[in-house]
Amino acid sequence: MVFVVVYAAIALEHPIKVEKSASALFGAGLLWTIYAIGAGEHEAVVHQLTETIGATAGIIFFLMGAMTIVEVIDAHDGFELITSQIKTKRLATLMWLVCVITFFLSAALDNLTTTIVMVSLIGKLFEKQDDRWLFASLVVIAANAGGAWSPIGDVTTTMLWIGGQITALEIVKALFFASIANMLVPLLVVTYQLRGRTFSMPVTDSNETASTPPFERNVMFALGVAILIMVPAFKAITHLPPFMGILFGLGTLWLVGEVIHRKKEPQERRHLTVAHALTQIDLSSIVFFLGILLAVATLEHTQVLAALAKWLDQTIGRTDAIVMALGLISAIVDNVPLVAASMGMYGLTHYPPDTFLWEFIAYCAGTGGSILIIGSAAGVAAMGIEKIQFIWYMRRISGLALLGYTAGALIYIWQYRWLH
């Protein structure tokens, strides 16, 4: 009952005007307190909490490292290397360019960061609000689709990867075509709607230059992206947890940055350092992940999730239908606690790594949030930047996102049955 109330507070964050991080952290503390008082064996509870902290810390450290690296790249104007290449007069062609770049960039970075970068770019390209909203909405769909098939592209996929439910190479092979379909179906419909329309690129001031020298920008962009992409390889070679790879990479980027900027004045170099980037990352989101993972862990240890899984199997019976429903629910409520709960409901003993259940959860939880603007971190970011109205998105985009979601799910199911 406590968890349901906390979950409701998280889902209704905007109407009740209470930050979801506060609800998650308070809920975690209250649930563990109830569990500790109610349980007879206090040493066993402490041992379970210690194990939970260890597993949760791996995800938290990974997210902090990845977010900091992205902040450093952005501080050096690294993303200008991508956005400056977009040159076209046809609206439909621009839509394809933006969505394809978003799709692959979100797999290499993450869907939230990519959405922020691309929506910010779109704001500079269009004056008409309707065009900006349409492009921003397709960016959300492309970013979520791109993040689903990469172990570092979406928080939920990262959780499953770090938890051992999926492996890096297998999730790429399993979900790539399903994710492509998820983006392509809405994109084809919108392309048809935009046929024949043109636009003019805004004239930029010739005196407007990037604040970071080209050499520094190129080095930090290339190194930062290379570190993020190489984390799965680091895990495969060393068998160390992914957070160790990302922290090692962050240390490397920090060292290179210190060497490159060593001759600059302190005031000039301050905003370019990793130390400054650490102050810019979204710590509120980090606290939310910490709180919700700790809260869900109490349901796992008290066997509530195991009982729920058994009830779903008896009531619905079909694994694919259960996971499809999970994806649809993630359009309404946050997908992080949903995936955390599913990891507790289904054990690795009955469902080994890279089985249908885990791969399909990664797809459905990662892309189902696109159906509503509030269903994913990427959607909430786009909503905040462009002030997209909930009703407008539901009327214009939700149907397209649902079509893409269903198409990708059917392709994955067909592909799995064909290959297995």
Written account of the structure:
It is built from 22 helices and no strands. The chain is an all-alpha fold. It has one domain (2-199, 212-419). Helix 6 runs antiparallel to helix 7. The longest helix is centred in the first third of the chain and has 34 residues, at 42-75. It is globular and about 65 Å long. The model is unreliable at 205-209 (pLDDT under 50).
Number of domains: 1
Number of strands: 0
Summed over residues and divided by their number, the pLDDT gives a mean of 85
Run of helices and strands: HHHHHHHHHHHHHHHHHHHHHH
Helix content: over 70%
Which term fits the overall shape? globular
Share in β-strands: under 5%
Measured between the Cα atoms of the first and last residue, the distance is 41 Å
